[in-house]
Design a protein that fits this description.
The structure is a single chain. The chain is α+β, with helices and mostly antiparallel strands. The protein folds into two domains: 13-93, no CATH class; 103-307, Exo-inulinase, domain 1 (Jelly Rolls). 15% of the residues lie in helices and 29% in strands. It has helices at 35-48, 74-93, 201-207, 264-270; strands spanning 13-15, 18-19, 23-28, 62-67, 103-104, 114-116, 126-129, 132-135, 148-150, 157-165, 170-177, 191-196, 234-241, 246-251, 254-259, 288-291, 298-307. The strands form four sheets. Strands 5, 7, 8, 10, 13, 14, 15 and 17 form an eight-stranded antiparallel β-sheet that branches. A five-stranded antiparallel β-sheet has the order 6-9-16-11-12, with no helix packed on it. The chain has a two-stranded antiparallel sheet with strand order 1-2.
């Protein structure tokens, strides 16, 4: 310890949670190859996506400075080491996900960035009004399913949105949807978080709690019933992380679901359900996000996504 010090010299935030800056370490020359120093350098490279072969030669990224032992007192060494260790721990704790910025999926003006599943830009009942995406069944002309689908595909992410459903309304938020003419419906491949008018007692009685609002449709019932009346806005925050094999849903700020995305736990949920006979159901780890049209009126607003690119 008396010959070793680490100092987090300079760090700047370019944007919220988008890390760009410079990290310098100060170590005694005879400790340059110490395992702690090597580990520190490697972890910085992983966290900030630096090139390990160039990082320590670049003034923009990580620099290694060497000094003689007699230039730093024992107390100075200890202070620098403790400061650097604490600073780095805090820094890395906040950087386990390299991209933490949110992207707006709905611009509040039009349906740019969206299309209808397997039908292109024939929105057929979907429209934008007063900053809200609205499906109006009265405006539907072609009697085919018109699920609203993102142009982009996603793997691990958090999506946040508000939804409001009409009386006896039924819709859903899907992910991992594979778009291909061989699949007629988005639910042939995609996994659904149910959106439902929870006052529709007959539907829930007939189909069970695994089909009420906030359910992992057909697979898991929400732990609590927290939906609001049909004329009020509800909020979903859906977290899907294939790196950690974990999904969860916060429904009106309350966690109501937590589930695996693959492996034995997932297989056990799917077994003996209608989805067991769908060979690609839930298998894709990259796919479109879909807002389902199921005949009734439904509205969405404030749709944002945060892609998760965390290191394991």
């Amino acid at each position: 310890m008396e010959n070793f010090g680490v100092y987090l010299y300079k760090f700047e935030l370019n944007e919220v949670s988008k890390y760009k800056g410079r990290i310098e370490t100060i170590v005694n020359k005879d400790m340059i190859d110490h395992p702690i120093v090597v580990g520190f350098r490697q972890r910085c490279c992983e966290t900030f996506d630096f090139d390990p072969k160039k990082s320590f030669e670049s003034k923009r990224n990580i620099q290694i400075k060497t000094i003689k032992s007699n230039k730093i007192s024992i107390m100075k060494n200890m202070q620098l080491y403790i400061f650097g260790f604490i600073s780095l721990s805090i820094l890395l704790a906040g950087c386990t996900e390299k991209n933490t910025s949110r992207t707006v999926l709905f611009n509040g003006k039009d349906l740019e960035g969206w299309h209808v599943y397997n039908q292109g830009k024939n929105f057929n009942g979907w429209t934008v009004r007063d900053g809200t995406i609205l499906f109006d069944p009265k405006a539907k002309k072609d009697m085919v399913r018109t699920d609203l689908t993102t142009d982009s595909e996603y793997t691990s992410f958090e999506i946040s949105l508000d939804w409001k459903i009409g009386e006896y309304g039924n819709s859903g938020l899907f992910w991992a949807v594979v778009e291909d003419p061989q699949y007629k419906f988005s639910y042939d491949t995609g996994i659904e978080i149910q959106i439902l008018d929870d006052n529709w007692a007959e539907y829930i009685k007939q189909n069970g709690d695994k089909t009420r609002a906030g359910a992992l449709y057909g697979l898991m019932a929400p732990s609590s019933v927290v939906s609001k009346r049909g004329d009020e806005w509800n909020h979903y925050l859906l977290h899907i992380d294939y790196n950690e094999n974990q999904g969860w849903l916060k429904f009106n700020e309350q966690e109501v679901l937590r589930f695996p995305l693959y492996g034995p736990g997932w297989d056990a949920m799917v077994t003996n359900t209608r989805f067991a006979d769908q060979p690609l159901f839930g298998k894709a780890r990259k796919g479109h996000i879909v807002l389902q049209e199921y005949g009734g009126g439904v509205s969405f607003r404030n749709i944002e996504i945060r892609e998760l690119t965390g290191l394991k």
